[in-house]
Amino acid sequence: MSISGLGSEVLSAYDLNFVWNSAIVKWSVVDFTSLLGQLGAGPDHSVSTAAQGNFGVIGNSNITDAALSAIQADAFLLGSFTLQGLTDGTTNFTLGTDLDFERNLVGLDFGNLTVDVGAACIGVGTGQCSRLPEPSSFGLVGLALAGLLVPAARRRRGAAATV
């Protein structure tokens, strides 16, 4: 899991709960050392939930926003999970839905960071993650079909006019 596009913002505190279907996969290793390196010396960091299917971390930097701005990258790794498949199937791996306690990222002057949170679909064994086409893909398919149908319709109208 990573964060990017901070620009002039910083990540100064967080409360994150990663959720997934624990009947499909389980975590065996979790590593947040890269995140801690972005928060300056001596950040507060603790695991708030360590259950299979819900892993929570909470923490904050102990330095000023100005000092964070000087050391923090625009994009960096928050943490990584090593997962073990348990049975055939699929699961989404994402953050919980509660904006206050499961996906709270704090920036400059204690303001909430507005972030887009994605999910990873994990397929185990015969489990298949379906991919829905993006809206732009639907538009391209529509244009391609129109390109095929319009000449055919013109040929039919031209043939009917000569009869």
List keywords for this structure.
alpha+beta; two-stranded antiparallel ribbon; flat; 2 domains; single chain; Immunoglobulin-like; 6-stranded antiparallel sheet; 163 residues; 24% helix; 10 strands; 3 helices
What features would you describe in this structure?
This protein has 163 residues and is of the alpha+beta class. The protein folds into two domains: 2-124, Immunoglobulin-like (Sandwich), CATH 2.60.40.680; 135-163. Helices cover 24% and strands 34% of the residues. It is built from three helices and ten strands; from the N terminus they run βββαββαβββββα. The protein has helices at 33-37, 65-71, 135-161, and strands spanning 2-3, 13-19, 25-31, 44-51, 54-60, 76-77, 80-85, 89-95, 103-106, 120-124. Strands 2, 4, 5, 8, 9 and 10 form a six-stranded antiparallel sheet that branches. The longest helix is centred in the last third of the chain and has 27 residues, at 135-161. It is flat, with a radius of gyration of 24 Å. The model has no long low-confidence stretch (mean pLDDT 86).
